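Last lecture ended with a question: if I hand you only a sequence, what can you say about the shape of the protein? Today we answer it with a concrete record. The protein is DNA-directed RNA polymerase III subunit RPC5 isoform X1. Below, first the input exactly as provided, then the predicted structure, then a couple of comments.
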Amino acid sequence: MMREKNNHVKFVVKNSDYATSLCPGTSTDNKRSIGIPIRDVISLSLEERLIKWLSEGRQVNRFAALLHLDPTISIKDDLLRILPLYAYLVQGLWVSKSSLICKGFEALVRDYIIFLFSKNKTIRYDKRKSPIPPVVRHYLSQLAFQRPLFSDLKFREATDLSFIKAYPHAVKEQECAWSSREQELLESFRGSFRNMMEKQAVDFLMNGLNPKLVKKVTSSAIADPGHKKDINMMASSTGMTVPSSSQEELVKVLLEVFRLHSVRSLGSIKQALQGRGIDPPPELISVLGQITENVHGVYVSKSAGNPDLHALRTVIIKLFMENKPNAKLRNNQIVAAVRSSLNRNFSADEYKQVVNGLCINKDGWMLKDGEC
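The predicted structure:
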C-alpha cells in the first residue's frame, strides 16, 4: 500500500496582514497604511483604537471598514459620535485629521488639500505653477493621484455613496464644519511665513490649486442625467428632499445668518433674511430643518465654529431638548452628560466656548432665546 504524502501548506500570513484583513480600510497603500498588529489594539477602548488606527494605520477609511475595529459589538452610533473628533468626512470617506499626522504649517497644508477634495474628488492644478512644492507634493501623494495628461489631481478613493445615503445628517454636519474651517485656513495662510519654502507652498495652494479651478459638483450633476438620477434615488431612500437651486441659495444664506448667531428665534431669522433683501419663502421651516435643531421653538445651528467641539455642542443641545422649555442646567449636569456620552474630557476653555455660544447664565445655564 502506498503511503499518502503528507502535504502541508505553510501559513505565512504576517500579523500586520492579518490585522488588515480584519479591519480593511481602502486601497490606499503607503508606509502609513500598514496594518496594526492585533495585540497592539485588543486591550484598548474603541476611541483609543480609532486614534491608533487613524494615526498609525490608514489615513482614508470607509465607515464600514472602521466598524471592524470592534467586531464583537454594534458600534455604529458610538463610532459616528467619536469619528468627527479625529477624522474629516471627504467624499463619504473618513480621513485622519491632520493633528494626528503632522503639526504646524504642514498640518495647515494638509488641511487645505483635504478641504479641496471635500468639494470635489478631482481638482485641477495650474501647470505653470511647477514644480509642486515638496511639502504640498508629500501630502498630495498620500491622498491623490496626479494625472498630468488631464492637468488634475484625483482623490485616491471612490466616493462612498453608501455612507452618504445612510447618514445624510452626518454629511450635512460635516459640510457646515468645512464652511467654518475654510475661513480659518485662509486666515492662517495670510499670516507671516517663516521661510521661502512656506511662502512658495502657500502660493501654490492659493493659485496653482485655486478653488476657482475646482470642478463644480453641481454643474457636473446638471450635465449628467445619470448623476441627477442617483441624487433622486438617494433622496427617496433617505427621506431627503432634493434641493432646488433656490433652496441651495437659501441654505447658503441661512448658514451665514447662523454664523453670526448660532441660536435664533423664527422672528430673528426672518428679520435677518429681510435685511438681506430676501422675503422668507414658504419652505423656510423645512430648509431650517436641514441645518438646525428646533429646541422648544428656538432654532440652534447644528454646527458652529470649531468642528473639534461639535460633539460637545451636540450633547448640550440634546440636554436642552430632553428638558422642559426654559430649563436651567447646572455645570455638573452638563459635565456628567458629556462624560457619559463622549467618554472624554474637554478643557475649561473649550467648555466655556461652547456653553457661552449656546447659553446665558441666570443662576444656571439657560438656552438663549434667539432674539438677536
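Comments.
1. The two ends are 96 Å apart (CA to CA).
2. The CA atoms of residues 55 and 100 lie 5 Å apart.
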